[in-house]
Design a protein that fits this description.
Largest sheet: 5 strands, antiparallel
Number of domains: 1
Oligomer: single chain
Structural class: alpha+beta
Bound molecules: iron/sulfur cluster
Radius of gyration: 17 Å
Number of strands: 7
Order of helices and strands: HEHEEHEEHHEE
Length: about 190
Amino acid sequence: MEFRCLDECSQCCIEREYYPTKKFGKIGVLILPDEKKRMEKLAKENNLEIKILPRIGVSEDRNSTPTKILGYQMMGIEKNGNTCPFLDTKSGIKSPHNGFPCKIYNDRPLACRTYPLIDSDPITLDEKCKFCKEHKTADENLNSEMESLLRIKEQMNTQYPSIWRFATEIGEMEDSHQFESGWFLEE
Ligand code: SF4
Ligand code: SF4
C-alpha cells in the first residue's frame, strides 16, 4: 500500500509526545546540529520566535556533562509543548492534503521529511501517525522518507561511550510533578 497523508490531518505537526517517559517532558522536532542555524534564520524571516533546546548529547566520561550535542529539538509554541511554530494554523491556506500547511515546507528539517518512518528494514511506521492507525503500514511512496532517515542515522551515529538525554520540563500541567530538567545519562 502507498503511504499518503490522510485528508485534513496535521497531527504530527501539532501533537508532541513524552519521550521516553514523562520525566523527560515532551520532545520537540528533532533538529540536527547543521540545521539549527538554518531554522533560526527561517524563524527570523517568518517573524517567528522559536525555542530550540538540546536533545541528545555525548561525552567520553560518564561523570561529566555532554561535550558534544548530536541533536537539538524545536519546541512547540503552546504551554503544553504542542504545535510547531512553523505550522500555519491561521491564514486559512491548506496543504496539498487539506491540512494546515508548513510555512517552511521546502526547507523543513530532516525529521519532518522522515516521519512517519521510524525504521526501514523492515519498514516500520510510527503507530501514532493517523495513516498508521487506519492502515497499519505501507510499502510504497516512502523513498524520500527512507533517504532522510538514512541521513539522520548517519549524523546521529556516535563512537562516544556516554550518551545523554535532555529533559525539557515541558508538557501538560497535570503531569508537571513528574518533570525533571537538564541532562540525564542513558543507562
Ligand atoms: S504523517 Fe501521519 S500524522 Fe502526519 S499528517 Fe500525515 S497522516 Fe497525519
Ligand atoms: S517544520 Fe513544518 S513539517 Fe516540520 S513539524 Fe513544523 S510545521 Fe510540521
